[in-house]
Amino acid sequence: QVQVQESGGGLVQAGTSTRLSCVSSRNLFSNNGVSWFRQAPGKEREFVAGISWNGGTITYDDSVKGRFTISRDRVRHVVYLQMDDLKPDDTAIYYCAVSRSAVATRRMDVVQYWGQGTSVTVSS
Fold first, then answer.
1. CA-CA distance, 61 to 32, in Å (whole number)?
2. Which of 43, 48, 59, 92 has the fewest C-beta atoms lying within 10 Å of its C-beta?
3. Cα gap 26→36, rounded to integer Å
4. Distance between CA atoms of 48 and 37, rounded to whole angstroms?
């Protein structure tokens, strides 16, 4: 059974930084794109950032561009989401998502595996 596990997050103050990590029980990260999505209370899940299998293509939602950085360590099979200059609007459950293909996806119907999510709460 494949498991995708996020870690990091928690309660942070506005203007500070935190980093999320995503690992998989099976080496999916060698050939698959990985995305981060988030779901705020009372809102739909939305795309945040994505990285292709080799890190060659990276995309961000406009709401986080310039503040968040997605990266991957291909040796340790970990994908990171560095979140800087956090804002209260960034408060959400953050999900790691493994794509069915080598590129990251903004579409939830193309996600093959989801993590359970990790909570980030940004206080003002």
1. 20
2. 43
3. 18
4. 5
The full DSSP string for the chain is ---EEEE--EEEETT--EEEEEEESS--TTTS-EEEEEE-TTS--EEEEEE-TTS--EEE-TTTTTTEEEEEETTTTEEEEEE-S--GGG-EEEEEEEESSSS--S-GGGEEEE---EEEEEE-
The reported pLDDT for the residue numbered 74 is 87
Average pLDDT over residues 28-46: 93
pLDDT at 26 over 80: no
